[in-house]
């Protein structure tokens, strides 16, 4: 019997795992996919919302503002990319002024610092590519952008460093009450735990409903996005939202911490909890809407389009708490879930600590060093690194200049990359303009070598997504 | 790090031919930088034949064709560095590169030849809707897996795009035991060579559907099906024309993009049509002493023309260095494209700096029949040739006597156009 099982290795599950590793406890994270950060956490706007949006008084508002406040220090402690670029909610019709004022007031009530309304002249100075119909905007200087992969991997690695175990490819199929806690049936055997934390994203309702009479429904709300090449960098510098109003709800245009531009999302409620396929209509909607707040968005420089799912609950609120003795929900974590993750981790770990009366872990190590990116080194240090480890002199991904040294580091981490996508999300090999055309065969080779398996066993993203199906002429 | 007078970025067919030609022109201080682990570039994975008909008057495979140039480079003792990635090119021609042995290093050559080649347009850039499972490859990636490593990327294949690599891979996958069901092409004409359509599709009964595109990809983990549909004149799918193919693989051959990130970092002016540098008749870019040739300049159909063009760039670079890196002022005649001519390489000619002839290469934007290619110096027609068929997939070449231009000193520009035959 373990002390705590956390179901789900997304950003919430990993934040909880990391925070709970401050205490003396045996913690196991169960994840149905082959890696951390494979669901909602991997496909979103990569935004740290300032916290003016969520309704004042809601848990969502409280955790958003707290999460946003915790994020800068956390990014230093755990070494992941974060940039405080500020955000703008742009109003494109004077008719919408009351809504803009209301948003401002809500933000002030939520405790968001530095909010102010900027008029067109100032707006144009801040963002020269703002649309011609932009009238004014709510400026939130605490708005920021973050690498959602980097954040989640950092939390997971630091949790693992402090003793949390991760078990992948393990889906929880049933939950039963036992004397001392809960018995989970999984696709890889039974697990018993004193406390269960449900951080299962779009599946959180399924798990909740296994133990609670008070049924919950999580609706996957799909968002389609475009990601633009580095060559589009600088088109906007702030995160630019459009105020919902006369011309409907817009899409955001924002820089990413890696120098791309992200455009999206749509908000399409679907039934399939795995429905991350983009559609023509969805992509067309983003194309049509992105010009409302920002002009001349260079969509021709798209390097990929993708869709992600938000775990939407009809009441649009986070549901965090002990719903049965020893069963803690962390459900309905839709946007601003990524922004709130640091605060969610603290809150849930506090609940678990109180249930189990946990003591502090005297060996807790709060710091984590990220995968070394030689691009950030000065010439002398860079040269020394290659002398010491020549793998840092071999470029594998040309578009993002990712070396073999970084890829090997990504694979050897705990939890480490086991697939081409796992490498991609950790070090960006294949994330660039050629989308892995040149480097994916090389990454497959390195994975096979490091993992000690045949290249035919290498997958894109776990079992069933094998990249090669056999050898030449074997079917003849 | 020892310095070199000429640094050639890229050891594929363009870089090799440029190096050999520069050496033959008398330059001895040359270095080739190649990012892969062998010379030859993409030719190493092009194991089909058909290369070298113009250059060597015989049919060679890609590796054989590359081998001829590699032999010459070795015989001439032209130095090269493998596994070496150029990270930056500065406007003053400082080259920053990296490899395992030398670490991070800088070179300060007198001249640079850009020979970085091109890359394939990936699925993402095409914004094809649907799932994003394993089993979606660019044709070139599949070609590498099959030809270099002996791995099958899939067994039931749909191909989008009828570029030459896609056509070649349709045949190749078939020969290796895969079932290629269909090749869909967005445009009403193929982007590939006629001979490849005949030899790679027709000969194997693989249908080519023009004016079709992929509208959906199914499969959570691995591709399970692909739906194609006919498109209208604006390339929008026509509802009701969808056809679903069960398959495990989608190969993409939807265009090649010259790799000009280094050119851009140096501030080399690029042509938005070709995505390659704008060059004059000497294949010199907007930065004096920086030359470009091959697919980095504009995408070629035949490697023979790459070698020819790169040879010229090599000679020009050698001449530039021999002349003390000084260039005389010459009047430049900008070239205007008209009536279906999409672009020309070069974009301007300086008759005073040109040799006896100038080679003009260009492509047309549509399929044309019974036209005349005409070149004007000012208002005077200086060249005209009948062409029964012109197609976007086939590069056109005009070799112009320089004297035809100097005969018209009043001309302020050149026009390349199509006229009724």
Architecture blueprint of SSEs:
The complex is a heterodimer of chains A (476) and B (421).
Chain A: E1 2-7, H1 11-20, E2 27-30, E3 47-48, H2 59-78, E4 82-83, E5 87-91, H3 97-110, E6 116-119, H4 120-126, E7 136-140, E8 144-146, H5 148-161, E9 165-167, E10 172-177, E11 182-186, E12 189-198, H6 204-211, E13 218-228, E14 239-242, E15 252-255, E16 261-264, E17 268-269, H7 280-289, E18 302-313, E19 319-324, E20 327-331, H8 337-356, H9 379-388, E21 395-397, E22 402-403, H10 404-412, H11 420-427, H12 440-451, E23 470-471
Parallel strand pairs in A: 1-2, 1-12, 2-9, 5-14, 12-20
Antiparallel strand pairs in A: 3-8, 4-8, 5-7, 6-7, 10-11, 11-12, 13-16, 13-17, 13-18, 15-16, 19-20, 21-22
Chain B: E1 6-9, H1 13-24, E2 30-33, E3 49-51, E4 60-61, H2 62-75, E5 80-81, E6 85-89, E7 95-99, E8 103-107, E9 111-114, E10 118-120, H3 123-126, E11 136-138, H4 139-149, E12 151-152, E13 156-160, H5 164-175, E14 179-185, H6 194-201, E15 208-210, E16 212-218, E17 225-230, E18 243-246, E19 249-252, E20 256-258, H7 261-266, E21 270-271, E22 276-277, E23 290-292, H8 303-322, E24 333-337, E25 341-345, E26 348-349, E27 357-364, E28 368-377, E29 380-390, E30 396-401, H9 402-406, E31 414-420
Parallel strand pairs in B: 1-2, 1-9, 2-5, 9-23, 11-19, 13-14, 13-19, 14-15, 24-31
Antiparallel strand pairs in B: 3-4, 6-7, 7-8, 10-20, 16-17, 17-18, 21-22, 24-26, 25-27, 27-30, 28-29, 28-31
